[in-house]
Amino acid sequence: xxxxxxxxxxxxxxxxxxxxxxxxxxxxxxxxxxxxxxxxxxxxxxxxxxxxxxxxxxxxxxxx
Length: 64
What we know:
Elements: H1 6-53, H2 59-63
């Protein structure tokens, strides 16, 4: 009365556990890189946005 794919599911879960055990340090490192680069992009975007909000020169300075 077991599902026909029950054995396949067990094998797949075992393979996933093995993969995670072998490569968890790489997956963790990759996650840290993604998080870090995302934070850098946000920081850069915020800096650019704030620079566009305030003009670098006033009209008086430009007319001199």
